[in-house]
Design goal:
It is found in: Cell envelope. The protein is built from five helices and 23 strands. The chain is an alpha+beta fold and about 400 residues long. The strands form six sheets. It has a six-stranded antiparallel β-barrel. A four-stranded antiparallel sheet has the order 3-12-10-5, with no helix packed on it. The relative contact order is 0.20.
């Protein structure tokens, strides 16, 4: 026992009071590689899109073809209600449209016939026919009575002048019939009071255009038929996207209302991760940053992802404000569960191919302990990016130096 004590004392004297290097200290070699910083949190899986589906009409459920958890394809029928009333509305609307189209055809044929009659009347009106008035048993030329002694235009919508002029021997009046009750020209002359003018262009404005009215009726009937067909189609719920059924809100025999949600459908093929980050970390997030995702039911596996959305508005969580972010998988894993938890690590910055050491080898004052053949020595280094695992060294060390891990 005495010999051991003396030997230890002699060793201390030879080193001048400095502790001998510990052969058991952990060390690492300086090398070149990548240095990255990251922020981490937890989140949950959610579908990229969710659809809530319902019927377009009230009715009684007659068929439910899916249940929660079923995988469906685009266009697949999911549920149906009784379509009897909806089909009757379609039939009635179709009958109304057929009648409206027949009325339009009749109006157009009538309009064509009236146009031909007006053309013949216009041609006949170009011939000069003398007018002879019979009064008191004698026949004497007489001017056409004036409808406005003051010489002002008549308020009648007829484009012809409202006052007749004295006929001359060389130009007798065109009309061969007596004047109408209003003092204008005889029917067919286009003057106020003429009965035939309503069948020619200009007369339709007073009695309404039957073709235009019939066309309006057809348009209204077409709209009504389209609406009825939409309601008939709405008696079935079809999948607008392929995905997984999350919820079915009723069963056969249930009474449902138009527009109420009956089936919830999710696109699990585009599953994403929704996560919240503390405000200190959220400031480093950007669109397009790479990330890794871990799942509790798949230990040891990491899945590549990318930040696709960062919320600009935070939400209070106790004394902390957190900001939401959404990450999309580079390749969506199979058999994911909606709502399951996930660990998220987002790479916020990175440098590649730089000189680096383990971050635990760098002391707070920017020094590193280097192990040499002569013993351990402290060196001041210039530090670049401080990552989670490694720290970039810009000067003070060379590739291959052996450094001591702090705390080892």
């Amino acid at each position: 026992m005495l010999v051991v004590v003396l030997t230890s004392a002699g060793a201390y004297a030879l080193t001048g009071g400095e502790p001998a290097p510990s052969a058991k200290s952990d060390t690492a070699r300086v090398d070149r590689g990548d240095v990255a910083t990251a922020v981490a949190t937890t989140g949950s899986l959610e579908p990229a899109q969710t659809r809530t589906l319902g019927f377009a009409a009230d009715g009684t459920v007659t068929s439910v073809k899916v249940r929660p958890g079923d995988q469906v394809k685009t266009g697949q029928v999911l549920a149906e209600i009784d379509a009897t009333d909806a089909q009757e509305r379609v039939d009635d609307a179709q009958d109304a449209l057929d009648e409206a189209e027949e009325a339009l055809d009749e109006a157009e044929e009538s309009a064509d016939s009236e146009t031909s009659t007006c053309a013949v009347s216009a041609a006949l009106s170009q011939e000069a026919v003398p007018v002879v008035l019979v009064a008191g048993g004698s026949t004497t030329p007489s001017p056409t009575p004036s409808s406005s002694p003051s010489g002002q235009p008549s308020p009648s919508p007829s484009p012809s002048p409202s006052r007749s002029t004295q006929p001359s021997p060389s130009q007798p009046p065109r009309s061969s019939a007596p004047p109408g009750p209003s003092g204008g020209s005889a029917p067919g002359g286009g003057q106020p009071g003429g009965g035939a003018s309503s069948a020619c262009p200009g007369g339709a404005a007073r009695g309404g255009d039957p073709v235009f009215t019939a066309q309006q009726r057809v348009t209204s009937a077409e709209l009504a038929l389209a609406e009825a067909k939409d309601q008939l189609a709405g008696t079935k719920i079809t999948a607008p996207i392929g995905g997984k059924v999350l919820e079915v809100a009723g069963k056969v025999g249930s009474e449902v209302g138009a527009g109420s949600t009956f089936v919830s459908l999710a696109d699990v093929a585009g599953m994403q991760v929704a996560a919240d980050f503390p405000e200190a970390d959220a400031g480093h997030l950007e669109m397009g940053q790479t990330a890794t995702v871990t799942l509790a039911n798949r230990p040891g596996e990491e899945f590549a992802a990318r930040v696709v959305r960062v919320s600009p508005v935070g939400a209070a969580d106790g004394n902390m404000v957190r900001y939401g972010a959404v990450l999309a998988f580079e390749e969506v894993p199979a058999e994911l569960l909606v709502g399951q938890s996930a660990g998220v690590r987002v790479k916020t910055s990175e440098v590649t191919g730089v000189l680096r050491v383990p971050s635990t080898a760098v002391r707070a004052e920017g020094t590193v302990v280097v192990r040499t053949a002569a013993g351990d020595e402290s060196r001041t280094v210039e530090v670049g990016l401080r990552g989670d695992q490694f720290t970039e060294i810009k000067s003070g060390l060379i590739d291959g130096d052996e450094v001591v891990i702090a705390g080892a």
